[in-house]
Write a structure and sequence with these properties.
Layout: E1 6-7, H1 18-24, H2 26-29, H3 40-60, E2 67-70, H4 73-87, E3 93-97, H5 102-112, E4 117-121, H6 131-137, E5 142-148, H7 160-170, E6 173-177, E7 196-200, E8 211-215, H8 241-279, E9 283-286, E10 296-301, H9 306-315, E11 318-319, E12 321-322, H10 335-339, H11 344-347, E13 350-354, H12 361-381, H13 389-403
Parallel strand pairs: 1-11, 3-4, 3-5, 5-6, 6-7
Antiparallel strand pairs: 2-8, 7-8, 9-10, 10-13, 12-13
The structure holds pyridoxal-5'-phosphate (PLP).
Pyridoxal-5'-phosphate (PLP) binds near residues 72, 74, 101, 152 and 179.
Subunit structure: Homodimer.
Family: Belongs to the class-V pyridoxal-phosphate-dependent aminotransferase family. NifS/IscS subfamily.
Keywords: Iron, Iron-sulfur, Metal-binding, Pyridoxal phosphate, Transferase
């Protein structure tokens, strides 16, 4: 892909900010000491790690001692879930949702084979949870509730603090995968009900392979990775210093830009979304229009395949993504859209545009200029048109019957 592509796939990963590259570079070559070493050379590096911890803590409204550096979102989710269970061995029940990232869902599925019972809360057509279902599922045996802040595919934001109040009443621990929300929604752990929170650097203009886990002071924790006792024994292994420095700088920049960048992204996103919906027939927005990340839109274009749209966009150097389970190389419709009960015709034709602070008006104009033509051409070739509605309805019944 040419470096000048129009990149609207920022929920998948983001460009590393040049200021972040600059901040981390000296820690490969000039300051390469081990942050745990006694000598001054290592001490300078230790200082940089401490500064990064302060910067990440500031973004979350947390204390420095509550930040554990990890290798990213997947490790944060795994570590939080396992730590919560190890700390309460007598409790054997977990609550999560049907629309979590595989970094949570696959851990929960594995835990089911190890004697835990897991409740997967359902969502409605807009991707929202029913808090009564949550309340009814909480028992004295519930060790952990792990729920994402915002959905990576639709951008739907869950009412995390309302959920947290219910979780606290039950005595369970509350973990939140906030990989998509940090930097887009203001966070303040001092007034929050969250016990543990996962974030990932590469969703906020830091490099891939670095992240952090927030662990509320006083919450019992059993580390997943043990060894040299780094990070107060909570995550062993010499820190990825350039990555840690980058994450700190990224946190500083996110805090600095949060208000103005998210307002701008929302305005661009709304223009993209509204214009597409108003000019292209038979399409609709997937997700909760009222509670959504400011940078994300997921739109279902009926009667065509999302992958075909992406290939056409790709020819014009435009990057977006579809709801298929691409990581597994399959073209199965997304588990998130299926859980929302979307009809077959929308499930397969949904694509996601996700913006960032670098997205420009001109880039949105370029997408708007090309989309109606792409959709019209694909619909002209589509076998799934109005004359096939009976067949489609049958498919919808079978997909929804099996998939929910
Ligand atoms: C909601 C969510 N959780 C977890 C992850 C995993 O993060 P990482 O790629 O840093 O392991 C992602 C990444 O796509 C995500 O969107």
């Amino acid at each position: 892909m040419h470096k000048d592509c129009i990149y609207l796939d920022n929920n998948a990963t983001t460009k590393v900010d040049p200021a972040i590259v600059e901040a981390m570079l000296p820690y490969f070559s000039d300051y390469y000491g081990n942050p745990s070493s006694m000598h001054t050379f290592g001490g300078q590096v230790g200082k940089a790690v401490r500064l990064a911890r302060e910067q990440v803590a500031a973004l979350l409204g947390a204390e420095e001692s509550e930040i554990i550096f990890t290798s990213g979102g997947t490790e944060g989710d795994n570590a939080a879930i396992r730590a919560a269970l190890l700390a309460q061995p007598q409790k054997r029940h977990i609550i999560t949702t049907q629309v979590e990232h595989p970094a949570v869902l696959n851990v929960c599925q594995q835990l089911e084979t190890q004697g835990y019972s897991v409740t997967y809360l359902s969502v409605n057509r807009q991707g929202q949870l029913d808090l009564n279902e949550l309340e009814a599922s909480l028992t004295g045996n519930t060790a952990l509730v792990t729920i994402m802040y915002a959905n990576n595919e639709t951008g739907t934001v869950f009412p995390i603090e309302q959920i947290g109040l219910r979780v606290k009443e039950s005595g369970a621990l509350f973990h939140v995968d906030a990989v998509q929300a940090v930097g887009k929604i203001p966070m303040n752990m001092k007034t929050s009900t969250i016990d543990m929170l996962t974030l990932s650097g590469h969703k906020m203009h830091a490099p891939k392979g670095i992240g952090a886990l927030y662990l509320r002071r006083g919450v019992r924790f059993r580390p997943m990775i043990i060894g040299g006792g780094q990070q107060r024994g909570r995550r062993a292994g010499t820190e990825n210093v350039p990555g840690v420095v980058a994450l700190g700088k990224a946190a500083e920049l996110e805090l600095l830009h949060l208000e103005e960048a998210t307002a701008r992204e929302k305005q661009l996103r709304d223009r993209l979304e509204q214009t597409l919906i108003n000019t292209i027939p038979n399409c609709e927005v997937n997700g909760d229009p009222a509670n959504r990340l400011p940078n994300t839109t997921n739109i279902g274009f009926k009667y065509i395949e999302g992958e075909a749209i992406l290939l056409h966009l790709n020819k014009h150097n435009i990057c977006a993504s579809s709801g298929s389970a691409c990581s597994s190389g399959s073209l199965e419709p997304s588990h998130v859209l299926r859980a929302m009960g979307l009809p077959y015709t929308i499930l397969h034709g949904s694509i996601r545009f996700s913006l960032c602070r670098y997205t420009t008006e001109a880039e949105i104009d370029a997408v708007l200029a090309i989309m109606p033509d792409i959709i019209e051409r694909l619909r002209a070739l589509s076998p799934f048109k109005n004359d096939n509605v009976g067949w489609l309805q049958q498919q919808e019944k079978s997909v929804l019957g099996v998939g929910r």
